[in-house]
């Protein structure tokens, strides 16, 4: 009795792990799950793999690399694109949907299972020793093309899911590449704004010296000071804009907005830029990459398979095929009797008399024709879009080239003449500011034209599908 009591006392402790493992799941609302995911994402960031410096790339140990956290990490555009795709929750969700659609393709490739039939058995016949049992195996054959049509439609759904994921990947890559270009452009604009601010501040200092020497008026000094303040304000605005763009770029790739990163890309002011590929190469690359084309092609295959299945419905086909055996006292295997003669066969054939499926066949044919025309429309639309973006990029490139050849020498000459005149003190501040303002307008106009060209190239990348092909380049205009 005492042992029984001890076992009874130990029973709750023994059942506790099992009960804990079988506890019902927690029911959380969508908002609670979302908040939990967001808080989890607020953990340590910036532990992603990016290249730091040459010593790390040559094989410096991880401990030595970790001690140089203050050093800026060198980030290329390819690194940024890879990290942005890796850390995109939207892309991961779309890729999971594509995986589900791929599994549904295998699920669609199936045939109907046979049916085992046993007729009603009477107990009195078993008791009297004369059982009569009939067993049969019934098949329902699929019509020709039905399974292939289901598989083709599942593949079309898979192509659409994969195309959505591909479209998101293209968007991510295009956005990241544009942010990279934007940072480089802003750096060039900051350099120009810094040079302008220094020139204006130097002019303001000269005006103070000339006012002290009674060689200029207080109005001249005020105008020079206002011009310097305005230039410094423009510089601060460009620097703030760069922090915003860089913060967005770092957020897209999964780094902290304040992370120390050195963005390394193509210098925007280096001219001429690399030649763009030919129109034919760009269009063919777009037709290979654009998800809309893949979707249209998959829909053609699905419509073709469905049209074949619908045409097959116009002909007679088996509704079922049944093979059985009838067990009776006369067919039981007893000595001296014939066996194997109680096999039965049945079949049902559907006759397309009242419904010849003419409407279904016509509808499937129309769907096939529509899908083919949809692909032709996509090809035309993609080609037109690529040509338009290429024309815009070519026009912007020619504008920059022409402006550089005409305006830059004049601006440089105006800056040198104004500087010499101010040093010789044979020009007033109004004329100096006027010449300087014209020079600044030329520099800002050049940067605006370069930004227009880089924007056009970014839109061309989007039209092609994320990046430009590296082969079959044209000659530079």
From TrEMBL:
Domain of life: Bacteria
InterPro entries associated with the record: MdtP/NodT-like (IPR010131), OMP_efflux (IPR003423)
Matches recorded under Pfam families: OEP
One of the record's GO molecular function terms: efflux transmembrane transporter activity
Annotated coiled-coil segments of the chain: 84-111
Gene3D superfamilies per record: Outer membrane efflux proteins (OEP)
PROSITE patterns: PROKAR_LIPOPROTEIN (PS51257)
Keywords, sorted A to Z: Coiled coil, Signal
Signal sequence extent: 1-20
Family: Belongs to the outer membrane factor (OMF) (TC 1.B.17) family.
Protein name: TolC family protein
Organism: Polyangium fumosum
């Amino acid at each position: 009795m005492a042992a029984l009591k001890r076992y009874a006392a130990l029973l709750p402790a023994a059942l506790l792990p099992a009960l804990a493992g079988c506890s019902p799941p927690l029911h959380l609302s969508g908002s609670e799950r979302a908040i939990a995911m967001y808080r989890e994402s607020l953990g340590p960031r910036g532990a992603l793999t990016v290249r730091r410096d040459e010593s790390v790339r040559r094989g410096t140990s991880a401990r030595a690399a970790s001690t140089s956290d203050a050093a800026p990490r060198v980030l290329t555009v390819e690194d940024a694109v890879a990290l942005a795709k890796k850390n995109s929750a939207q892309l991961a969700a779309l890729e999971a949907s594509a995986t589900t659609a791929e599994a549904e393709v295998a699920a669609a490739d199936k045939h109907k299972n046979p049916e085992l039939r046993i007729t009603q058995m009477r107990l009195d016949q078993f008791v009297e020793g004369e059982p009569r049992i009939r067993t049969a195996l019934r098949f329902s054959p699929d019509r020709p093309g039905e399974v292939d049509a289901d598989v083709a439609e599942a593949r079309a759904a898979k192509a659409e899911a994969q195309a959505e994921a591909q479209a998101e990947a293209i968007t991510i890559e295009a956005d990241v590449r544009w942010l990279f270009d934007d940072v480089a452009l802003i750096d060039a604009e900051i350099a120009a704004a810094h040079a302008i601010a220094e020139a204006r501040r130097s002019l303001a200092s000269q005006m103070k010296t000339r006012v002290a020497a009674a060689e200029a008026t207080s109005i001249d000094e005020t105008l020079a000071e206002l011009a310097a303040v305005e230039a410094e304000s423009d510089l601060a605005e460009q620097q703030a804009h760069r922090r915003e763009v860089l913060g967005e770029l770092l957020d897209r790739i999964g780094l902290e907005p304040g992370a120390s990163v050195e963005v390394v890309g193509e210098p925007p002011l280096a001219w001429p830029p690399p030649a763009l590929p030919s129109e034919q190469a760009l269009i063919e690359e777009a037709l290979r990459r654009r998800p809309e084309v893949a979707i249209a092609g998959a829909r053609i295959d699905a419509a073709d398979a469905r049209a074949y299945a619908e045409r097959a419905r116009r002909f007679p086909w088996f509704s079922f095929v049944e093979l059985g055996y009838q067990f009776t006292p006369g067919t039981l295997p007893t000595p001296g009797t014939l066996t194997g003669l109680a096999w039965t066969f049945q079949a049902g054939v559907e006759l397309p008399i009242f419904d010849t499926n003419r409407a279904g066949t016509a509808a499937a044919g129309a769907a096939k024709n529509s899908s083919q025309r949809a692909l032709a429309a996509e090809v035309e639309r993609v080609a037109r879009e690529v040509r338009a973006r290429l024309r815009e990029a070519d026009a912007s490139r020619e504008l920059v080239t022409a402006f550089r050849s005409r305006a830059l020498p004049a601006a440089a000459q105006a800056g040198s003449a104004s500087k010499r005149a101010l040093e010789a003190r044979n020009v007033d501040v109004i004329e100096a500011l006027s010449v300087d303002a014209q020079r600044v307008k030329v520099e800002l106009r050049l940067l605006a034209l370069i930004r227009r060209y880089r924007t056009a190239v970014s839109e061309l990348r989007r039209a092609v599908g994320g990046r430009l092909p590296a082969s079959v380049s044209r000659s530079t205009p």
